[in-house]
């Protein structure tokens, strides 16, 4: 019974750590800075731990040197949170947690250097397995295009986490739990203040303390040490280390449920190897080899590749960053995916539609993600010479893709879609180049040039002449779709500010008797809506492509 209780304690502690990154990412999406989120966690955590320490019976708290050592060790704790939370802003949670787990082999090397001995065979195997699992889990084998800055933050987090683990296991271990935790967290808070300095005050909103500080401190600085301190003595270090690996699937699973992050089967294999690397030093090698064989036997290895291209545009005299998400099969249809205002292709895969690689595998379909350069609206500007996106998307990019890939090379195997600014771009470019794209999809698109659109960068592209606006206005040019023989799908959330204009376009198309699909659902103008809507639209394109294959 005691062992079962210990198992439960360790699982709860590890799972608590696992959910942190998702909360941090949500806080960032709500406009809270990484600095304020991190500091609020440590302020709340320190106050709670200080109160818990006060309630304990007074005991000798050791020498002054112990206090300073704990404060110094706590700086690693604060830097771990800072670096990890910064990585979360650039990378999917599933990649961040794997980068953080590099502390497994880093810790082995630190112990070996401290004890001046060579790694044991089991430790060497653990290092190899963890590195191999990292290679798979981060998606590098498929040409993954993760942010280099994010990867650097993730590896720095792993290094500081290694220091934190050393401090927790070697500094003043005979002191009371809450006393040690309080000083470690205080040291972490001081490190955060030094790292961020005056930037903490920039845009600081007090509500971050109760909205995210309390919950992050509960799951990040209070519950884990309490449950680990109670659980490890009951189950032992070996079993406890194995159980602590639950942090990885909890972290990835929470991100999948809340953030809709997708994980390929190849990444699942990689995560399994990293978990195995945590287990190897604590179990017999025969069991490790058996587990490895079973893991590769039951998990299919399949993942879309992601290519990063620099495509030169003769019309704009510059290169445009473009991502290509492609399945293993070569001759497949393709969908051009246009991001929204202020977005970029990397964010599309990390946040807006992270399910694209999985859908590429599922439907045998390629996705082309050009960079719309923040606010260029995918049009040809007469005022800005290097903004000629109609030409690039309708002619230059398809020609480049046709030359370098074996995708279907006609309008019946090519579609274009986007959301917000990209929804406008998909409709505008799709209508202009009906011979290039056989199907168009718009999610909460800016279908009419109204102040909400004009004031977001379009004014510098098309000027102030309202007569000129009509050339670019989708609603005004809807009649073009009557003769294009294109399939069209539009979706919009009922809480979206563009809903009234999407309804107007739907009514105009009905009036003109132009066949189309229009869907309204719960949701607003945010990534949660278009991430879900994209799955409907991709299925729509899949059925369109399949119809012409037959």
From TrEMBL:
The chain crosses the membrane at residues 7-26, 32-52, 92-112, 124-157, 177-196, 208-228, 234-259, 266-283, 289-309. The keyword Cell wall biogenesis/degradation does not apply. InterPro entries: AB_hydrolase_fold, EamA_dom, EmrE-like, Esterase-like, Mycobacterial_A85_antigen. Keywords: Hydrolase, Membrane, Transmembrane, Transmembrane helix. Residues 5-137, 150-280 form the EamA domain. GO terms for cellular component: membrane. It holds the Pfam family Esterase. The keyword Hydrolase applies. Signal peptide: none annotated. One of its GO terms (molecular function) is hydrolase activity. This is Alpha/beta hydrolase-fold protein. The lineage of its organism: Bacteria, Pseudomonadati, Bacteroidota, Chitinophagia, Chitinophagales.
